[in-house]
């Protein structure tokens, strides 16, 4: 009996032998899973940072054209590509990737953080950095050439206004009041977006109460913004670059005249839907995902009006710049040679 017991292997040893390959297999599977997850996150973060780097390069190109900077090209392009890339990668790693691994972030919060990082680090930071660097270079170049430019004739605001008044009435109105057309298009975009959200949220009441602000607010905002950043600088001689004029007017048409009315329609119609209970609104935890899902069909349908508004605004800026050049080339009546 004792011999047979010694001849048979111990049950605990058999369990240990069977358990060991299972544990090793589980560890290998977890390791492969973590490696795939880390590789995927690295690729996503690198893509995120690369997009920010391209945004910096494009911003640097635009501001170099606007400020007419022709020196230190390699230095500015290198810094504008590297700094946004690094800032986006590090910020995404600290506030999104690490939070996902620690399981301390919800899906809505993750989307919100990623969007905020994309806007701040991928758009605003490259633009501000390009503006600062190229503005500093342009100021330095202007100070160096200040003495040589003293002999040039300075065109004052009075001279520009006098020359603009010599244009035909239709061209003068287009140059001075072209912002009204951009504002009208923005009001139209607001009304279209308002109608689309009303259909989705089944809002049938307060048509005038919702339609008036959705037309009036985008009109005023776009008109004032266009006057401040395009029309007024053109008429005072502060904006003397055609590329800058087209870029400014196009951005105003895109952001203020196209996207802003759509975003404005969300709280307006959301408030009406909550007041009249025409649609099931989400709880606090699902607000962001709900409005993203609700807004997708609206943005798809608004893509053509937004692009049309952008192209029209850029075209208007180009025409206004050409009219200004035409006005400056006119000879004044008192200085004509007979």
Automatic annotation (TrEMBL):
Species this chain originates from: Pongo abelii
Family listed: Belongs to the TMEM126 family.
Principal subcellular localization: mitochondrion
Protein name listed in UniProt: Transmembrane protein 126A
Superkingdom: Eukaryota
One GO-annotated biological process of the protein: mitochondrial respiratory chain complex I assembly
Residue runs in coiled coils: none
Function: Protein required for the cotranslational protein quality control in the inner membrane of the mitochondria. Associates with newly synthesized polypeptides and may act as a chaperone that cooperates with OXA1L for the insertion of newly synthesized mitochondrial proteins into the inner membrane. Required for the assembly of the ND4 module of mitochondrial complex I.
């Amino acid at each position: 009996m004792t011999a047979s017991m010694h001849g048979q292997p111990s049950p605990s040893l058999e369990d240990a032998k069977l358990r060991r390959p299972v544990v090793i297999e589980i560890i290998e599977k977890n390791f492969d899973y973590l490696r795939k997850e880390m590789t995927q996150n690295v690729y996503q973060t690198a893509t995120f940072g690369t997009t920010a780097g391209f945004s910096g390069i494009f911003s640097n190109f635009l501001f170099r054209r606007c400020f007419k900077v022709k020196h230190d090209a390699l230095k500015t392009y290198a810094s504008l590509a590297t700094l946004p890339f690094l800032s986006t990668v590090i910020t995404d790693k600290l506030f999104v990737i690490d939070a996902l691994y620690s399981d301390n972030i919800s899906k809505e919060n993750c989307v919100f953080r990623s969007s905020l990082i994309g806007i701040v680090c991928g758009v605003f930071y490259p633009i501000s950095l390009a503006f600062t660097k190229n503005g500093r270079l342009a100021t330095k170049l202007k100070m160096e050439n200040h003495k040589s430019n003293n002999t040039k004739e300075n065109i004052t605001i009075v001279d520009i206004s006098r020359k603009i008044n010599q244009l035909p009435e239709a061209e003068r109105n287009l140059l001075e009041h072209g912002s009204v057309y951009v504002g009208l298009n923005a009001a139209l975009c607001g009304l279209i977006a308002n109608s689309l959200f009303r259909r989705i949220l089944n809002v049938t009441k307060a048509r005038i109460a919702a339609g008036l602000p959705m037309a009036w607010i985008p009109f005023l905002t776009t008109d004032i913004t266009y006057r401040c950043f395009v029309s007024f600088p053109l008429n005072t001689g502060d904006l003397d670059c055609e590329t800058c004029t087209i870029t400014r007017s196009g951005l105003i048409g895109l952001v203020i005249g196209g996207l802003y009315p759509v975003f404005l329609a969300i709280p307006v119609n959301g408030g009406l839907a909550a007041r009249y209970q025409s649609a099931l609104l989400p709880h606090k935890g699902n607000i962001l995902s709900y409005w993203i899902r609700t807004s997708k069909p609206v943005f798809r349908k608004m893509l053509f009006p937004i692009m049309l508004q952008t192209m029209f605004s850029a075209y208007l800026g180009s025409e206004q710049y050409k009219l200004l050049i035409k006005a400056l080339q006119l000879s004044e009546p008192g200085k004509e040679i007979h």
